[in-house]
Amino acid sequence: MGALSTKLHTSLGLAQALRLKRPGAPAPLSIGIVMPVYNETSILEAALERLRHVLRNDSVVVVDGGSTDGSARIAAEFFCTAVTERPGRGLQMNRGAEGLSSDVLLFLHADTQLPPGFQDAVRQALRDPRVAGGCFRLSFDSPRPMLRFIAWFTRFPGRFFHFGDQAFFVRRRIFEEMGGYAPLPFLEDVDFLRRLRRRGRFAVLPVAVVTSARRFVRHGIVRQQLWNTVLVTLFELGFSARRLARLYPQVR
Predict the structure, then answer these.
(1) What are phi and psi of 211, to 5 degrees?
(2) 95 contact partners, CB below 8 Å, separation of at least 6
(3) Rounded CA gap, 249 and 109, in Å?
(4) Could you report the per-residue pLDDT of 205-230, keeping only the tens digit for each?
(5) Over the stretch 31-53, which tens digit does the pLDDT of each residue have?
(6) CA 68 remoteness from chain centre
(7) Domain boundaries in the chain?
(8) Which residues are within 8 A (CB) of 122 and not within 5 positions of it... i.e. 6 or more apart?
(9) Which tops the pLDDT comparison, 232 or 136?
(10) CATH of 27-245, one of 3.90.550.10, 3.40.50.300, 3.30.70.20, 3.40.50.720
């Protein structure tokens, strides 16, 4: 009985494999990752090493915005690397997208870590043809209760809950139809999300990325969250991204 069970199990496994490989079966969506960087030597090597560990057959392009600290050199040791004349995440991410031919584009900040198996979660969401793109839930690399509370809200839809550090992904066709990211100096992710939602459903995946809490730690958690909300509100009311960028100092 045990031998028969083993033989049956093996036969079923072989049949399943043959079905998966049958001629005409659609290939899984390919995923290409774009990482914009600018003066990130303090974290970049570790970030790229972590990224390499969760990749399968995914393509990666790192786009340096003209760093002065050797970030481009570090990136080139890991992945294909391009350099733009000036920093600007929108500009850099568009440049990276040009270097990829994947079905799906995923935009990853240097201080954000993708979870193992992220590819399966993205492909599962995009099985629904109504989904134009999406993002991951958020978690922080700090156990502070207030940060866990803030991250908890990222499972819900909402204009104030989703930003670029949650690794936006989008179907390439839709990205091209949108004209990519706007060349804004700030809040390019808010603008992108607003335009993306006009193209179809926006999926929030049930798994989380891990992002750095350094800005919250430096400025104060509640203060930083309130300031983020104020800036997005002002942007939605028509204030220019250039003016608002002056109110949001870089932290590295």
Answers:
(1) -120, 160
(2) 63, 82, 84
(3) 17
(4) 999 999 999 888 887 898 888 888 88
(5) 999 999 999 999 999 999 999 99
(6) 25
(7) 27-245
(8) 29, 31, 104, 106, 134, 169, 205
(9) 136
(10) 3.90.550.10
